[in-house]
Structures are given as C-alpha cells and as structure tokens.
C-alpha cells in the first residue's frame, strides 16, 4: 500500500491531486519518504549536506548570532558516536577549513588513494622482510623494547672518535682560554662567550 503525500498546505488543486496520484503509482513508499524528506528540508533551517561511506550525515544551518550571520556545521552519527569514524575531508569541512562539502566523486577518489597507499605499505613491508631474510638478520621481536639505530657509521664520520681521552683534555684547555671578549684575528680568531647584560 502506498502512502499519499500532500505537497500543498492550501486547498488541494487539481494539479496537486494529479501529482499525488502519479507519485503514489510510480514511486515505492521508501522513495516517497525520501522525496518528502527532501521537500520538507526546503522549509527547515537544517540543510542536509552529505553522507559519508559509514553513514554519518552532515548538516549545516545558517543563523544570526549577535547581528552576524554564522554558519553552524555538525554531524549526526549513524550508530555509536565515534569521532574517529569521520573521514579527514569531512573533518576539514566541519572545522571550516573547507568552504564546500566533499563531493561523492572526491570521496571516491580519496578512498582509492588511501587504498593505494595501504597497498604500497604492504608491498614495502614485504620487500623489507625479504631483504632482511637475504641479509641473514632476523628482526628482534622483543616486546616493550625497540632496537636503537646502528650508530657505527655515524661515529666513524668523526676523526677523533677513537681518541676519547685527547678530546676531553682539549675541551678543558678551550674552556680555560675562553673569555667574554673575542681574541685573535684570521685563522687564530676565537669568539668570546656571551654574557647577559647586568
């Protein structure tokens, strides 16, 4: 059984009666309710903007606040309120970083890009595991502690890395020579230390 919808608040005219009859014969009840919701939305101050793939619905409302027209944006969650279920493009729209809401085409493109990145990550992890297996090294699977980086190549860049004692002696002599005034010129120039004004 189809439901009828009256599109006019005034007395029914011949046109509205015909329109009701056509719509009830052509459209199933769900389509009628969607059509009615859209029609009723024209007269409400809450404007439906879009929906994401999870089913969260996004709205905006333009109202006056202290004599200034402000736009309020919000989301109605489909199920449980989970802010992490909101896609980035919708977060940007809600925060006002985007002027226009994302289009379905744009959302599909961004979702395809996210899937592409996930596939690349999986491929790179697999290549890294294969490389580690070829090198004969096994990854340590200690829970709670991560291995630090190998600093041997970094330390080898410094010429005095093997002479630890001479470095300590050199820093002591430099500390004694430093004063608040710069000394020398050219190759023998030594900058002075900065002293705060008193």
Low-confidence stretches: 1-13
Helix content: 40-55%
Strand content: 5-15%
Alpha carbon gyration radius: 35 Å
Task: Give the integer mean of the pLDDT values.
Answer: 74
First CA to last CA: what distance? 92 Å
User: Mind summarizing the main beta sheet?
Assistant: 3 strands, antiparallel
**What class would the helix/strand composition place it in?**
alpha+beta
Order of helices and strands: HHEEEHHHH
Across the major sheet, the strand order is 1-2-3
Q: What's the total helix number?
A: 6
Total number of β-strand segments?
3
Shape: elongated
Topology:
Layout: H1 14-26, H2 29-41, E1 47-51, E2 57-65, E3 68-76, H3 88-95, H4 104-135, H5 152-155, H6 164-177
Antiparallel strand pairs: 1-2, 2-3
Membrane topology: Peripheral membrane protein
Protein name: NADH dehydrogenase [ubiquinone] 1 alpha subcomplex subunit 12
Family: Belongs to the complex I NDUFA12 subunit family.
